[in-house]
Amino acid sequence: MTTDFQRIPNAPTTTPVLEMQGITKRFHGVPALQNVNLTIYPGEVHALMGENGAGKSTLMKILAGAYIADEGEIRINGKPIKITDPGTARQAGINLIYQELNVAPNLTVTENMFMGSELQKGQFLDRPGMEREATQVLQSLGASFAPNTIVGTLSIAEQQQVEIARALKDNSRVLVMDEPTAALSDRETERLFEVIRKLRNDGIAIIYISHRMEEIYALADRISVLRDGQYIGSLTREEISPQRLVQMMVGRPMQDFYEHQRQTQVGPVVLDVRNISDGRKVKPASLQIHAGEIVGLAGLVGAGRTEVSRLIFGADRKASGEVFLDGKKLEINSPSDAITAGIGYVPEDRKDQGLFLEMSSRKNIALNRLKQDANAGIVNWGSVNKIATDAVENFQIRLANLEIRAVDLSGGNQQKLLLARWLAIKPKVLMLDEPTRGVDIGAKSEIYRIMSELAAQGIAILMVSSELPEVVGMSDRVLVMREGQLVGELDGSPGKEISQENIMHYATGAAEVLAS
User: Fold this and answer.
1) Which of 80, 122, 157, 250 could be stapled to 188 by a disulfide with Cβ–Cβ 3.0 to 4.6 Å?
2) Which one is predicted more confidently, 100 or 494?
3) Residue 18 pLDDT more than 90?
4) Torsion angle of alpha carbons 45, 51, 55, 60, nearest 10°?
5) Which of 36, 20, 445, 447 minimizes the C-alpha distance to 227?
C-alpha cells in the first residue's frame, strides 16, 4: 500500500472548516456522547478512531443531520450552524458516505448524482445540463465510466465513486467516509486512496473512519480518538505510534493488551480427541486440552482448523475418531449431544452460524438454557432475566436494554453475546473459532480478558485463530495444522518456543525441510 502522501506537518493554523464543541447525545437516558469536541481543517484527512460503541457513528450522524445533539454547538468556517436534517447538512457542504452505499441501482449515474436536486429548464428536466455537469465531476475524479451508465452494473468501488461525485456536485466542504474499504479489493482500495489524495489537495476536508491501522498510516494527517462516548485526544502525524493509539483507544498500555499469563502448571486432561477425521479434508488428528489451559490451533487458511473443531462439536459427521471428556467416551452425533456433555462452540461466522440476529439480546444469551429453565414447557423468565442481566454486567456488553436485537449491536458486543450464551451452560470445554474477527481493538482486549478469566476458572479452551500475534499472546500451547494434519506442537520449552516464526515453520512445511 503506498504511503507517499504529502501531509500537514503540524496542526494547521488556518480557520477550521468544522468545529463540533461540547456535543452530547443520549438514547433512552443512556449517554452515547458526552461533551465531545472535534476540529477539522480544510485540506486534511482526519482519522476518527475508537472501538465499536465509542461514539464515532453517533457523532457523524449528528454532523450529517440524521440525529440532533442534545447539547453542543457546530460551527462551519467559524460560524454557528443548526443542522436539523440531512438537507441542512448538505446545504452546509457536509456529506456522509456510509459503509452501506446509498445508491439507486436501476438509475443512471447522472440520475443518482442529481436525485432530489434535479436541474430544470422551464417545466422540464434539463437532462443535457445535468449530464454535462456529471461528466465534469466524473472526469475530475478520474472515473472510468460514463454518466449514462446504470449504477447497478458498476462495481462497489465505482458505486462509491458515484457517491463521492454526488457530494462534489453539492460543493462538499467536509466529506465523511465510514469504513470505505470494507468491501474493496487491494487494487480498488489503492484507487480510492488516489481519489482521497486528490480531494485533499483540492482543499476538501475528509473525516476517515477505519479500524485498519495501515490505512490510517497511509492517509491520516491527524487522528482523533473517542472512547466510551468521550473525546480522548488528537495526534498529529508525527505523534502517531501503535503504542499511543492502543493506549488512547483501550485505556491501558499496549504491553498489557494480552492479559493471559502463560501457564506452566495446568490441571488434568479434560478433552481428549483421538484420531478424529472426516475422511476427506481432515486426516486422523489427536489432541488433548487440560483444565485451565488455552490451546491455540494455528495454520494457514485451508489447513483444516475449523473442520477439526466442527467434528469435535458434532456440527459435521466424522468418519473416524473418538472424543473423551474427563476420561469418559462421548457419543457426539450432533451439536446438541456436545452441548449436553458440556462442550461449547463459538463459530467463526457469528452472524450466519451463531446469533439469531432478529431476536433480543436476552433471548440470544439464554437460548441454550431455555430447556433447563422451563417447567412443563413454560419458561421461567425470572431465571432467564437474571442470567441475561448477570451476563451483560460480567461481560460488559454495551446495550440500552435487554430487548435490543442482536443485529443492532456492534461486532464486539455481538461476540460477547455469543460468549455469554455458551457460558450460561457452564461448559467444561469452550472452542472459539476466530474469537476476535471483525471486532475493534477495544473489544479484542475485553474478549482476551474474558478468555483469561475463563481459563483461570478451569475451563479448557481451544482457540482457532488466523492472527499469529493473538495465538502467541493468548496460548499456553500451540498446535499447528498443515493440509489437514496436525504437524507440530509448541509448548514454550527450549526449541519449542511459542513464536510466529516457529508457527510458520510448521504451517509452511519449513520445519520438515530443515529437519531433513
Assistant:
1) 157
2) 494
3) yes
4) 30
5) 36
Whose grid coordinates read 452494473?
153
What is the SS3 assignment for 245-286? HHHHHHCCCHHHCCCCCCCCCCCCEEEEEEEEECCCCCCCEE
CB 486 within 8 A of CB 480: yes
Distance between CA atoms of residues 257 and 472, nearest Å: 12
SS (H, E, C) 439-471: CCHHHHHHHHHHHHHHHHCCCEEEEECCCHHHH
C-alpha–C-alpha distance, residues 111 and 283, integer Å: 56
As a residue count, the chain comes to 516
What is the per-residue pLDDT across 403-458, written as a single tens digit (0 to 9) for each?
Answer: 788 778 777 778 887 777 877 778 899 999 988 877 777 778 788 888 888 898 89
Q: How confident is the model at residue 117 (pLDDT cuts 50, 70, 90)?
A: confident
Helix axes 381-394, 411-423, angle to 10 degrees: 130
How far is Cα 367 from Cα 388, in angstroms, rounded to an integer?
10
